[in-house]
Amino acid sequence: AGQRFDQTAVVLADESLLFSVLGAIPESMAGVNITMGYPLKDSPVVNLVFLLADLVRNSRSDSESRLYFRFVMTILSHPLLSSVEPEKVTAGMREIIAENRIYLNPDQLNFSDLHRKIFNLPAEVKDFTSYFLEILKLLYDLTVDSSDSLIIREMIALVYASFEKLEIAVSELWMKGGIEISPVIYLRLMR
How does pLDDT run across 10-33, given as a tens digit for each residue? Predict the structure, then answer.
């Protein structure tokens, strides 16, 4: 049968190694007790949110929305999105590179519902929170319910809750003082 490691502890001097260690634990190990913290700011979920913020900050809106290819390619290559329509995404990325496109129209990036939501950017600051919340909800729903995914799902839930708190703070500014914040300020508050 399987080996038992009830009396085994792994002590990490560098918390950033946590995901590597968790990935190396065999599936046969039923439950693992993690007694150290992992900074949410270093998580792949927050990394994706910051990439989305960069996309929003650096998009161009003339008569139609245009997205800079480097931001798009980085998002499409993100590990949390790797299992979402991988064949379509790979083909789309090859086409972008082959045609040497600099700016992309969101309609060219409709690989899935999640991709469609990611690349259809909010036009106004008041829509920023719902943009991020909807993406996090879709990502949560797409994250399979496996032992590896439980930590990712928990991180998504924590980031989701943070956005809900941010929305309350921003709404209070607007309701109490009629203060509307700029896109730059909103995106700084996220960090």
Answer: 777 777 787 788 778 777 776 777
DSSP secondary structure of 2-22: ----TT-----SSGGGHHHHH
Beta-strand pair 65-68/103-104: antiparallel
pTM of the model: 0.79
Size of the chain, expressed as the number of residues it contains:
191
Widest CA span in the chain: 66
Strands (E), the chain: 60-61, 65-68, 103-104
For the chain, the 3-state helix, strand and coil shares in percent, each to the nearest 5, are: 65, 5, 35
What CA–CA distance (Å, rounded) separates 108 from 105? Answer: 6
Higher pLDDT, 111 or 11: 111
Higher pLDDT, 152 or 26: 152
Nearest to 119 by CA among 107, 128, 133: 107
